[in-house]
Design brief:
4 helices; four-stranded mixed sheet; 4 strands; alpha+beta
């Protein structure tokens, strides 16, 4: 793969279409960050370690208190999980 290919960016629509719209990832986050992705979420105690399940384009799907619960939610919704580094 050429360096130029690695620098190419995908649009939100292209990201959303990855995996036929069935691709998601789990992102660790702090409770202070939750309202940015989940504006409807209730106020939470600061400093909690949480896990967000996000679609390939970054759209929020769910937030949980454990990584295992986020993974279970992905399986329940028949989503393919991507590993991000």
């Amino acid at each position: 793969m050429e360096h130029e290919d690695m620098d190419a960016l995908l649009s939100d629509d292209q990201l959303a279409g990855l995996g036929g719209g069935r691709l998601a990832y789990v992102k660790p986050m702090r409770s202070e960050e939750v309202n940015r992705l989940f504006p409807q979420a209730p106020a939470m105690q600061p400093g909690l370690k949480l896990f967000a399940l996000l679609a390939a384009d970054g759209s929020p799907i769910a937030v949980t208190q454990s990584r295992d619960a986020a993974l279970a939610n992905a399986l329940e919704n028949e989503l393919e999980l991507a590993s991000l580094h």
